[in-house]
Amino acid sequence: MRRGRLRRLKAGTLLPWTQAPFGYRLDPDHPRDPAGVRVDDSQAAVVREIFSWYVDGTTITAMIQRLARLGITSPNGRPVWSPSALRCLLTNPAYTGQVFANRMRVSPAQTRYCALRPVGRRNGTRRVRDAAEWIIVASIPMIVSREQFDAAAARLVYNRQMATRNNRVHQYLLHGLVSCGCCQRGCTGRRLPPAYDYYLCRTKTQLRLLVPGERCPARYIPAKPLEELVWRDLCEVLQHPEIIAHAIARARGGHWLPQEWQARQENLRRGRASLVQQIERLTEAYLGGIVPLAEFERRRRETESRLRALERQEQDLRADARDRHETARLADHEEEFCRRVRDGLAKADFERKRALLELLVDRVVVTDGEVEIRYAFPTGPDGERQPFCRLRTDYL
After folding, report:
1. Quick check: 376 and 360 in contact, CB under 8 A?
2. Theoretical Cys-Cys bridge with 285: which of 71, 165, 290, 364, CB 3.0 to 4.6 Å?
């Protein structure tokens, strides 16, 4: 009985974190003891103001600007609050006096942070579990009322539904595929008055407080001309699969023709036969007393070294031949794939165009007036099931 009571006490009193949320202080000697949690009056006042502002209709952007103007630093001590920091604060149920465990889960990242930059530190994405899976751990002093917390949560849900990223009124054929060649950032579609569609890099759409330094000098990218250019180029490539075969051959280093490969093989064979013959003659000269032992060993080592080098060249040539056959096989698959796809190009609607572009275009990089289209054609049936970006080793 006593043992069971101690087990329940430990499970119910240990906090699931050692760093208190913004607005609270922990007992330094017992950081996981709920009894040692105290309200930081100055930070708690900021938390109450943030909830009040948001429930009254202040946007996340306006709150970031107001907090920066007041000189209130973020929980990490930064001079500017990030949108994610404010959303985490507005959705943390600890401010209502309840501490939960098993509230978050880490799942593999679904997108790259930036398509044109090296892999960053993002090892996964934190997601909130279903409320039924939460475990009540302890109670701590309350900072905001339950009614105010629920009102903020309802407004977050409404704003998420009405966000621009979920607005499908204006469709962009290259959504998520365009990058700026100047700042290396991704571009998003934006409609500007009266009715002009553009692709803009994120330095032009984010707050200057969140993107320090100068704005990217790149111009706005007209959406319709870029989409027509990319689609026209894709149709041209699909109509001529030999372009893809040539690119595959170049990627595998196949810059030589079959007759050249045969000539190289014959030259290596004759060179190897000549070296074997030299070793035999050198051995006969040594046995006949014409060449002394020291000279015989030196010349034999040199000849055998050249013979081993020729054997390595022959192995490389055979590997090249295997690559050539593999290139031919891949080219045959590409030709068959293009034949299946190009039959419906003329009648393709927006959804089919979009699906085809997601599959075959890895990135469209726009640098001033130059457009670079990076294609990624599937080399087998498995590659036709998902976009190339998810197959990259640096995808995460």
Report:
1. yes
2. 290
